[in-house]
Amino acid sequence: MAITEDQRPSRATGDGGPGFVHVRGAREHNLKNVDVDIPRDALVAFTGISGSGKSSLAFGTLYAEAQRRYLESVSPYARRLFDQMSVPDVDTIHGLPPAVALQQQRGSPSTRSSVGSVTTLSNLLRILYSREGFVEVELLFLPTVYAPCPVCHGSRYNAKTLEVHYRGKSVADVLGMTVAAAREFFRDEPRVCRALDVLQEVGVGYLRLGQPATELSGGEAQRIKLATELQRIQRGDALYILDEPTTGLHAADVERLMAQLHGLVDAGNTMVVVEHEMRIVAGGDWVIDIGPGAGEEGGRVVAAGTPTEVARAKGSRTAPYLARFLSVTA
Length: 330
Description:
Elements: E1 20-26, E2 34-39, E3 43-47, H1 54-74, H2 76-79, E4 92-94, E5 99-102, H3 121-124, E6 134-137, E7 145-148, H4 159-162, H5 171-175, H6 179-185, H7 190-201, H8 218-231, E8 239-243, H9 251-266, E9 270-274, H10 278-282, E10 286-291, E11 300-305, H11 307-311, H12 319-326
Helix pairs in contact: 6-7, 7-8
């Protein structure tokens, strides 16, 4: 489905003025001494084929330097960690706001974490998570497995806890509900509904509240982190960096996710999205295409501008796909 030019937001001006993050001489990993201006208070897509250098610029350069500056500013105790952090290979970065990285899950999440416990829902519902649900069984030379506890049969709660009911449902019953079903069940609880609404808006309404974090895909885990950020008081002036947040999303949910991203921008934040999904790229304010190839053949800014401008860029491997989506001609 294509979108027309008048449907695309146009917050970015492209004048390279004070409303930009100015990066000069970025050489992290395969980046080739990159100079680029990234508009603030806008939704910016980093595009390019896998291995082109998008993440090196977004996470290895922008986020890494923002974290260093944050630690340097907070307290003497935090500054003890400063020397332990890697220094991004870049000459200068000006205009960089505090950054929040929402990457796809890289490590192994705790088996005690769930959809409810990593959002504000656990506090709102006053759920006390016990450690009884599953028993860890270590197997020699084989991966650790988890078996249902013989006492609670996997519910994670003892008999006394399960005796407490809300509208006829125990804590275990509630945790067995999907986000969408829980939204209907708690329809008379405004604060709980707000938290559930945000989870639905980022496209995870099908997940169970008690679904273990170990069962989530990288895209699901990242969208839950985004939902957590959306539930906080938004003060603006932050840089959010997301890593392919549309992974596994249906087209309809991509549109809902876009609305949330634009909402954060409207609140005064800057969104940088490393993405291949053309709905996100075309619906943003600015595109920075990295490439043209991968590895040593990448690491350069091939094109930068509005989605329509990049769609007409020569030598960009992203341009033909973006042009097709936007229905523009070279």
